[in-house]
Each structure stands twice: as C-alpha cells, then as structure tokens.
Amino acid sequence: MMPIHERLAELWTIRERRSLTEDEQCDFEHCLAVNAAHCRRLANLYNLSLLASMTGDHEWQHDICSKIEKLDGPPPAFRNR
Fold first, then answer.
1. pTM score
2. In a domain, 71, yes or no
3. Percent helix / strand / coil, the chain, rounded to 5
4. Which of 17, 26, 28, 67 could form a disulfide with 11 if both were Cys (CB 3.0 to 4.6 A apart)?
C-alpha cells in the first residue's frame, strides 16, 4: 500500500466522525488526485500487457509486468508468502 492510500484512509475515517479542516480537505483532494493518476497508470499498463500478450511479444509483456509490479507490488496470489 502506498503512503498516499494510508493518508486517504485516515482522512476518510476522520471525515466519518467530523468535518475535515481546510488543510485536511486539501490533503484529501490531493490524495484522491494522486490515487486517480496511479489507477490510470496501472490501467494503461494492464492494457499494454494485454496487447503484448495478444501479439505474442513476450519480452515486451515481461517488461510491462515488471513496471506493474514496481507500481502495484506483486500479484495478489504472491502476496503474504
């Protein structure tokens, strides 16, 4: 989990109990923007990986999968081992 996700969860929890301060609201908006950008990058890489698979370009797919792991960690099946 990225630190930005931890902060987003923290702010969400605070927001459940009280209104966010102006600074907290700015942090919340920033976290949402960073999360959205992260999701777009990952979605793009997953789409490129699919394209590499469909065209049989295994070297390219391996490169893309390495980038995905750097951004998102290992696939869920390999976590907690």
1. 0.77
2. yes
3. 85, 0, 15
4. 28
Residue located via tokens 């792991």: 69
Flag whether 68 is in a domain: yes
Number of folded domains that form the chain:
1
Q: Which residues contact 15 (CB under 8 A, 6 or more apart)?
A: 28
Q: What pLDDT is attached to residue 14?
A: 98
HEC readout, 11-32 = HHHHHHHCCCCHHHHHHHHHHH
> What is the spatial distance between Cα 69 and Cα 16, in angstroms, rounded to a whole number?
33
Region class of 80: left (phi > 0), else alpha (psi between -120 and 50), else beta? left
Domain assignment present for 81:
no
Domain that holds residue 52: 3-76
Q: Is 72's pLDDT higher than 50?
A: yes
